Amino acid sequence: MHLRPRLLKVSYTSPAELWAMQIYLNSFGTYLHVKEAMFEIRVPTESGDTQTHHLAAKKVGAIIFTVAGAMSSDAIRLALTYNVDLILADRSGHPLGRFWHAKLGSTTKIRKRQLEASLNEKGLSYTGKWLFAKLTAQADLLTQLKKHRQKHHVLLDERVIRLHELRSAIASCVETASTVAEVADTLRGLEGTAGRLYFQTLNHLMPEPYQFGVRSFRPAADPFNAFLNYGYGILYARVEKALMVAGLDPYVGFMHRDDYNQKSMVFDFIEPYRPWIDRVVFRLFSGHRVASPLYDEVAGGITLRKTGKELLIEALGQFLDGEKVRHGRRNRCRSNALLADAHRFAQELLERDEVVDIEITAL
Predict the structure, then answer these.
(1) Is the model's pTM score more than 0.70?
(2) Residue with more model confidence, 139 or 6
(3) For residues 249 and 111, is the Cβ–Cβ distance under 8 A?
(4) Residue 8 scores a pLDDT above 90
(5) Which domains does the chain have, with CATH numbers?
């Protein structure tokens, strides 16, 4: 089989998708085990045969099970040996559980500093930076959408100005307090207002059959939100891994509440990167690549079919792992830039007096 630089896709009759070392096992009856020190994937076909694929562990970044399948203990050992992320996801793409190596190689001091920051001005500063970056990315996306939408220029200009105003309000709010707790409700209100304006604008620009009105979650009320929610699920898994590899605790957040079993830091850290998913999903719909066979209507909402998930996984794989963007002084794919941002965040926490300076990867 031919390997292309940075990008590998394997297709079967019932496919297992591999994009930039992210393996999505989404066929019922798939079996993953080890043969000759390599992963062997066995995928049953509709004709009753079995197709196999072999892949070196060092070439794999993550293995995600999304439907009923099986993995041998030898495959788990091989994955842990090569630091391959093993994820069990639900049908919406959200991680249910994952295997981690017993030795993550991080220092406890990072997590201590993270806990301290959650209670002082440093956590507030990061919260403001992440929300500021999120609204910046949202405004940048709307600005870029003006290019081929002459008749919407007035609306887009107005909404970009409003997002910039709300972004400035967030910065001002952060300057008036010393902890997140003092201004958390205000920050959520400003972010919520920005989100409503932003998605109202995307809705207005969508092809009429797919206009969605408002954001809806699980279950999604429409195809656009179903794709968006599945994409966010994929991003949650990547953000959690980036935080863990950097030595951070995904449960100790700064702004999101520390509810039982809630990965608050994942929800905090993901904010500037959400527009990545928005952009990819919007491209699919505005490019008329989404048709009804890609999703189903179920009680209370919309769910993606396997073909719909594969379309989105393919598009996100190219966007996150195939394309390179300028990140600091280097050109990186967005996935590697996310990892670098998490490591930088962890190192900054170790330096008590270092000025917070977050660099978020451009769209």
Answers:
(1) yes
(2) 139
(3) yes
(4) no
(5) 16-89 (3.100.10.20), 108-350 (1.20.120.920)
